[in-house]
């Protein structure tokens, strides 16, 4: 059986159902598998003739082996179907040129890649509760920089045995993202804006998770905390699937041959999306480089280049807000993996980051990281220019986060000369960030004095791309959540909601 331990030690050795139910270890660490079964090249080749659902079961059973195949099939079929996803391929690959393809991860109900994990996590969690004999109601706490919140709300709304509380930075998300959350219906949902940035919001949620007095209080009410953020292994493991799926689709199109290595470019702030690519490589996927693309909040770029992680810098609000993050939670898992599971080192680095705002890893570790990862960043002007160029060159409309990825890919090729077949992960529909996309593509006189909801229609009319169902008429829906709190009051608010 695949057993899971905390990155901060303790050798818990728990099954995946228990790890998914808990979300985070009591010592603040993240759950990681001790070991897992890998796929051979022959097994990877067989994926090309499978549906996305079949590919998902093939990959997931390597990690969630305490779930039966029938249970996994049930979770997968409920999550990835044509009622929820507008593409029959679930995650289609679109080829831009001989060396670059785009993996579209935004055909789910909330038009962002978070759907790939958060449509299946509630089904994992319900099964995990049954398997572990859990009698308590599970309270899902979420900090979001925009997309996770709505995707989690969509996944958990009215799921029996759960409540969900979502916190988002008050001025840190787009209007479309905000309206997606504050209009969310469901008897078990609560949405709260926090006066602060995403890092403040995420830090507040982490503190609640490790507050022993509060945990004791809610336990007496037959409640237990869990997480839908990417600190939860059940949120990360579904993301590994689409790396294999992209490779299988390139094989199917005869763009690559079995065993050929490919690159992946991943726009990321919290490091979970690109970490899934690292686990795919560990599983046997032929990956050459994982290219980490950042915006102006380029803490990950600096870390991958120097081995110094330093969040003591100005936080920049950008046009790619889902990446406006200075504390990348999932990097902790990579440090654990590449330091040979040295939980003491990881604990010391995380403690130093929390108390002093930075840490530095040893030379051997950063060399290991650089064997697989390459990093750069794109400023906001470069991002807008890239959106314009992609549209002009390929008649393809990209959102701001995807454009960060393509711009960083261009920098990678210029720097290295590497023309290995490359897939850039497209993490959101361009309609979610229509204000910036319209600014990049159209004249000011066409966009001036139009709000985000009017720009949805303009973008559709001018490009011929339809407005996604999940974004239509959001501004006409009833606002159900209006609460705003100070970052210091998040714990008290959770107590008021639950107790």
Describe the structure using short key phrases:
alpha/beta, five-stranded parallel sheet, 499 residues, Rossmann fold, 15 strands
Structural notes for this entry:
By secondary structure, the protein is of the alpha/beta class. The chain has a domain at 93-109 and 234-431: Rossmann fold. 45% of the residues lie in helices and 15% in strands. It has 22 helices and 15 strands. It has helices at 16-22, 41-46, 52-60, 69-79, 115-118, 121-131, 147-156, 175-182, 198-209, 212-220, 233-252, 272-282, 299-306, 331-338, 343-356, 363-372, 380-394, 400-416, 434-441, 444-447, 452-463, 490-498, and strands at residues 4-6, 31-33, 93-95, 100-104, 137-143, 162-169, 189-195, 223-227, 262-267, 287-294, 308-310, 358-360, 373-377, 422-426, 484-486. The strands form four sheets. It has a six-stranded mixed beta sheet with strand order 3-4-14-9-10-13, with helices on both faces. Strands 8-5-6-7-15 form a five-stranded parallel beta sheet, sandwiched between helices. Strand 3 and strand 4 form a beta hairpin. The longest helix has 20 residues, at 233-252. The radius of gyration is 21 Å and the shape is globular. The model has no long low-confidence stretch (mean pLDDT 96).
